[in-house]
Amino acid sequence: MSDGLRIRLDRTICDGFGICAKHAPGYFSLDDWGYASLIGDGTVPEKDRDAVMRALFDCPVHAIIYMGEHRPSGDGAAHPDVHESPEPDPKTNGSEAISEFVR
Fold first, then answer.
1. Which residue range is the domain that position 16 belongs to?
2. Which residues lie across from 7 on neighbouring strands?
3. Which of 55, 66, 47, 39 is nearest to 3 (CA)?
4. Does 30 reside within a domain?
5. CATH number of the CATH domain containing 35
6. What's CA 89's distance to the chain center, in Å?
7. What is the pLDDT of residues 39-95, one digit of tens each?
8. Which of 15, 37, 64, 94 could be joined to 56 by an S-S link, Cβ 3.0–4.6 Å?
9. DSSP labels for 21-63?
10. Dihedral over alpha carbons 82, 65, 41, 38 (to 10 degrees)
11. If you ran DSSP here, which 8-state letter would residue 76 be given?
12. 64 burial class (0-12, 13-18, 19+ CB within 10 angstroms)?
């Protein structure tokens, strides 16, 4: 069972549509020009998950980034369950093509 989720807002992508503040006003505020700011540290408790996920999915420019779930640990503190994908390691011989490009 998760203890909530974690999000981030990339303000450099935001185009000021304001949909996030409409769906989750407790987590997003709009400045005078309509651009969003994240309220708090991006931790979203389970009770607010649906509203924040709706904001994430409805953002037309995908400025809201899903960072993973918090899962309770044995020490009682929540720790994010985020794993980065490993970099691909293609095995090639000297002149073998990779994704239609030749080395």
1. 4-70
2. 66
3. 47
4. yes
5. 3.30.70.20
6. 26
7. 999 999 999 999 999 999 999 999 999 998 866 555 555 555 555 555 555 555 555
8. 64
9. HHH-TTTEEE-TTS-EEE-SSSEE-GGGHHHHHHHHHH-TT--
10. 180
11. S
12. buried
d(CA 7, CA 9): 7
Which tokens is 16 given? 């000021």
Quickly tell me which residue has 């185009």 as its tokens: 15
Asked whether residue 90 is assigned to any structural domain, the reply reads no
Answer for the pair 102, 94: CB distance below 8 angstroms, yes or no: no
Domain count, the chain: 1
User: What CA–CA distance (Å, rounded) separates 78 from 67?
Assistant: 14
Q: Coil, strand, or helix at residue 80?
A: strand
- Whether 31 contacts 1, CB under 8 Å: no
The Cα 101–Cα 50 span in angstroms is 43
Predicted TM-score of the model (pTM) = 0.64
